[in-house]
Write a structure and sequence with these properties.
2 copies of one chain form a homodimer. Chain A is an alpha+beta fold. Chain A has 2 domains: about 10-130, 2-Layer Sandwich (60s Ribosomal Protein L30, Chain: A); about 135-280, PurM-like C-terminal domain (Phosphoribosyl-aminoimidazole Synthetase, Chain A, domain 2, Alpha-Beta Complex), CATH 3.90.650. Chain A is built from 7 helices and 14 strands. Chain A has helices at about 50-65, 85-100, 155-160, 165-170, 175-185, 200-210, 225-230, and strands at about 10, 20, 25-35, 70-80, 105-115, 120-130, 145-150, 190-195, 210-215, 240-245, 250-255, 255-265, 270-275, 275-280. In chain A, strands 7, 8, 9, 10, 11, 12, 13 and 14 form an 8-stranded mixed sheet that branches. Chain A has a 6-stranded mixed sheet with strand order 1-2-3-6-4-5, with helices on one face. In chain A, helix 1 (about 50-65) packs parallel to helix 2 and helix 1 packs parallel to helix 5 (about 175-185). The longest helix of chain A is centred in the first third of the chain and has 17 residues, at about 50-65. Chain A starts with 7 loop residues before the first strand and ends in an 11-residue tail after the last strand. In chain A, about 55% of the residues are buried. Chains A and B meet through strand 3, strand 4, strand 5 and strand 6 of A and strand 3, strand 4, strand 5 and strand 6 of B.
């Protein structure tokens, strides 16, 4: 991160969160914003108000986890249509606030508007000791690559609308304790959350770090997920991290498996390979889908 | 504000901004979020991309001014349709960033998404010395009520699409210097910005302060504005403040008139009167319009 300034902007556009250093403060503050739109991120027919509220907050908290930070507070901009009834709004807030308060992030304020479709923008602020935020850009050649949990569940759930995979799609768990554990134990050199699919997110990490990556074997598979969903399916909200070779990464943390899936190499022509062949970024791209 | 805590949430939902106190920091941080939706807040046919970007940022900066704070940074969540072209986006960013950077608020990050209509959510963070944020809730009986500038211009501009009133609608000026001046000189007991119309915003101030208000004479009229637009027209983004009787409020600040429009009374049955008759809150209400 270069010389540490006394205050101001530390990390701008490009990581899971922006990092701001208040003058004289004990901790850096990290900020993330995440929008959800009816018809794009959810359907009123298949997603309950409470699930939508939960997920809107879970996505923001996952970005806080991805910096190794602790949630401090949240803001909400909420757009409703003329048809939205009071019960729906109450359930939405319940889903959002239950999760936020369980993780120490009270809702401080925001904005409301009427629009032609329901949408929301959740802003979450987290705190992390000065200069200790875990960035995407810290991976170096020789580091090992890990993921938490099982991948592909959210995409499989969206396809089947069934069983645990559908629950995973509706109610992803922000890995806040794991993010803080990795920071406190100095286990991770780079950290991000898996929101747009392993292939796409890993490309972002190696790009930010100026390195390449090789994956081997099969990433840990959520029951019922296809290979395509494991490699490219979005919205798992597990953590992707790299660890120096000497770091003692446990096989699991609070019952969640931590699986080694590959290694970081020097920057080469192919950003990411999987079992020897190039792995393209085929996850979610906000600008093409 | 009661006993001043060492850190945490100071002001939650209900003021122009939320106030957060980072542990050990020299200043409190204030946060505002403001959404704009195509078809609700602007039309692609009549509003240029650069004007839309400008106004999205101006609304947030006006909330920072309304706390007596200085801008520190901004975040942007931006939703575009499949039809939005690159030139439009470039012009939008130019309008937004030119204003933000002119006021010391670099863009730190945010989110992007595709949606069925263009919308944006601007988050602005400001800084103010600990415990010195100017709230809506500080007005006490005997205080005098002031507004900056001329009122009704934005509503008149939206009606006529002509001359200075249309410019005022498209390019409201956040009164940042005035807000900081009022705080530094300890001139204001309560402060907010006029976003939804004088009648509605003044009701909010007296409600937050637990007082009533009487207005007399005619509030300062933007050329071409009707009486209805002066009293109830939104989006002027001028400042509304109360000052103790002993406070020496100048007649103007940096060329902007500061006009006394009434007085604060003890809490009574009628929240706001104008020349002796009840003045209802007929400005913009996000939940009925």
């Amino acid at each position: 991160m270069g010389p540490v300034p006394a205050g101001g902007v530390i990390v701008a556009i490009g990581d899971d969160c922006a990092v701001y250093r208040p003058q004289g403060a004990k901790e850096d503050l990290v900020f993330t914003t995440d929008m959800m739109h009816e018809g794009v991120h959810f359907l009123m027919e298949t997603h309950s108000a409470r699930d939508i509220g939960y997920k809107a907050m879970a996505r923001g908290l996952s970005d806080i986890a991805a910096m190794g930070a602790e949630p401090r507070f949240a803001l909400l901009s909420l757009s409703l249509t003329a048809k939205t009834d009071a019960k729906w709004v109450e359930e939405f807030y319940k889903g959002l606030l239950d999760l936020a308060l369980a993780h120490g992030a009270p809702l401080l304020g925001g904005d409301t508007a009427k629009a032609s479709a329901m949408s929301c923008d959740v802003i979450v602020c987290g705190g992390v000791p000065r200069g200790k935020a875990l960035l995407r850009s810290g991976a170096v050649p020789g580091d090992r690559i890990f993921v938490s949990g099982l991948l592909g569940g959210s995409a499989a759930g969206l396809r089947t609308k069934k069983a645990d995979a559908w629950k995973r799609h509706l109610r992803p768990k922000p890995r806040l304790n794991l993010g803080q554990f990795l920071r406190q134990k100095r286990l991770a050199s780079a950290l991000m959350d898996l929101s747009d699919g392993l292939s796409t997110d890993l490309h972002r990490m190696v790009n930010a770090s100026g390195v390449s990556a090789e994956l081997d074997g099969l990433p840990p598979l959520f029951p019922g997920a296809t290979l395509d969903e494991v490699l490219h399916g979005g919205e798992d909200y597990e953590l992707l991290f790299t660890a120096p070779r000497r770091a003692k990464v446990p096989a699991e943390f609070e019952g969640l498996p931590l699986t080694r899936i590959g290694s970081i190499l020097k920057h080469g022509k192919v950003p990411v390979t999987w079992n020897g062949a190039p792995l393209p970024a085929l996850g979610w791209d906000h600008f093409t889908k």
